[in-house]
Amino acid sequence: MSIPPELAGAIPLIDRFQVEGFLKAMQKQIQSSGKRGFFIKKSVGPQVREKFTLEDMLCFQKDPIPTSLLKVPNDLVSRSIKLFHVILKYMGVDSPAIISLEERIELVAKLYKHTLKRSELRDELFAQISKQTRNNPDRSWLIRAWELMYLCASSMPPSKDIGAYLSEYVHYIAHGATTDSDVRVLALNTLNALKRSVKAGPRVAIPAREEIEALLTSRKLTTIVFFLDETFEEITYDMATTVADAVEELAGIIKLSVYSSFSLFECRKIVNGSKSSEVGNEEYIGLDDNKYIGDLLSEFKSAKDRNKGEILHCKLVFKKRLFRESDEAVTDPMFVQLSYVQLQHDYILGNYPVGRDDAAQLTALQILVEIGFIDNPESCVEWISLLERFLPRQVAITRAKRDWELDIISRYQLMEHLSKDDARNQFLRILRTLPYGNSVFFSVRKIDDPIGLLPGRIILGINKRGVHFFRPVPKEYLHSAELRDIMQFGSSNTAVFFKMRVAGVLHIFQFETKQGEEICVALQTHINDVMLRRYSKARSGSATSTVSQNDVSQADKPPNAEMYDKRVQELSKVVDESQKKADQLRDELQRKTQQEREMQEELEGLKDTLQSERHIIKEVTSERDRLKSLCDEKESSLQVALVEKNRLETKLTNGQGQENNTKMDLSGNHCERDVD
């Protein structure tokens, strides 16, 4: 018998399904219940099939299943059976009343709780739901089954092989000519959700109640994303929205056409009122494109709950991951504005140490961008606050306040013919010319410093020129290492290292940070840009040389052509190696992330097993105590019986003694009578 087309993807997975075991258990269940059959089958011919197959197993049934559909560990079989009970209840099978929205949310949350951390149970769940969507005789049940499939696909993916079958099956239903319109919509939504969850992986946290409700009621939730100037925009999200989705939506809202170098960051700030020594410090943590917005918001809430002794603010911030040389050619107004805001933010924090002249000029330019040009700036009520706001504190203390005011006013008055855009571009140009200009900054701790010149805490700045080291307090530039001096670099989850030349000698520096991957990616990107730029120049030089050779005789052929070709090949090789290294780093990160997920799943399994063992031990201990108590009672009863026995024996002995005495007395009396 041929397999239906919608199940074609399941053929390679036949070994994953326990067809024989399931069907034997079903036959046993059928016989014990006195029913004639369980499966809702569509006849495919005049003959009635006597042997059940995979097709039969993956058909709708309204009664509980006796075992799992897939081959799962023994300790998961009972859980698999319970999953099917929840599915039946959610679908409303044999339910006299219509199941409410609240009940549906609770049931979905229960499924998430039991399957989110266990890949085997996720596969089993998807297999069971897909089973309930085939040959379902009731339209309302069918729609509920597809609704449940959509909810599960939005928060967690099946494994690779089950995912391939499921995608093929859902695609077949979604594009079927006879598919119900409501089912088609749900199937298409499920297909899109599967694509996203397979790429992003399962949710870390169990989706919140409001997320489930929003998906069930086809509405979006909202959250706030901040910019570095404290302005913000509201974005929408649902259970399956990732950072990449949010960035794309936000770019559309603010009309940012070039946003590949932008991303969302997690900003954590300990505010006044906390006992921590790091009050006011902001930490920006880059977020993976595949991170779920729902998980982030859940982590924010958990972080606040964990840090009850500190007043911790967590928020999402939109900013550039790094500044690239190609940014200078971008003319998108929003791109320029956001670049200005980020550089201004870093400058005010003191990340760009400059001299007095540059500081005064930069302050005047920022004021011009803020309020435009006015004839008498000192009459402006905001003037003093603007001076304090745009002049870094570390620079301001190097000079009297009035001297700063006079210097900045004189520079500001010379800017009469500058527009706000001109002032903004000039500000960007001044910072760009600094050796550490257009850097992205990372706060790290020193682990290994072979030279012994770096402080314990350091700020690393990374730009197209290399790596720059700063002392955080007071803000002070220490040292730079150009890209050509960095021989090797790498990172782990908690550290980053650089093997670089200092004064012609190779040294290895190590720093503690959770942003090691971001640091390495930023460095590798700049190295790739340099290699591509050199390659492009060499190729254009080679092309020019070739054109000129066509206009002169062969005897006048310049000797540089071969050198150019060789150089191009070398640069191409370097670019390929750099790209390969970047790919390796990315693959390594993905591998480590996958290992972490697997270890987490294994840990959850061990926790469940431990809990089960503890429960068994508790039951055994309880039984032991009961038996011990019973033994004590029996022992006590035995002691009482022994005492009673001794008492009776004593009494019996005493009775016999008295009887003997009586007999002796009687014998004496007889003797006396005889004598008489």
Automatic annotation (TrEMBL):
Belongs to the TRAFAC class myosin-kinesin ATPase superfamily. Myosin family. Belongs to the TRAFAC class myosin-kinesin ATPase superfamily. Kinesin family. KIN-14 subfamily. One of its GO terms (molecular function) is actin binding. The keyword Oxidoreductase does not apply. Residues 60-216 form the MyTH4 domain. Residues 221-535 form the FERM domain. Residues 542-561, 651-676 are annotated as: Disordered. GO terms for cellular component: cytoskeleton. Residues 542-553, 651-664 have a biased composition (Polar residues). Keywords: Actin-binding, ATP-binding, Calmodulin-binding, Coiled coil, Cytoplasm, Cytoskeleton, Motor protein, Nucleotide-binding, Repeat. Its main location: cytoplasm. It comes from Aegilops tauschii subsp. strangulata (Goatgrass). Residues 561-637 form a coiled coil. This is Kinesin-like calmodulin-binding protein. InterPro entries: Band_41_domain (IPR019749), FERM/acyl-CoA-bd_prot_sf (IPR014352), FERM_2 (IPR035963), FERM_central (IPR019748), FERM_domain (IPR000299), IRS_PTB (IPR002404), MyTH4_dom (IPR000857), MyTH4_dom_sf (IPR038185). The lineage of its organism: Eukaryota, Viridiplantae, Streptophyta, Embryophyta, Tracheophyta. It is found in: Cytoplasm, Cytoskeleton.
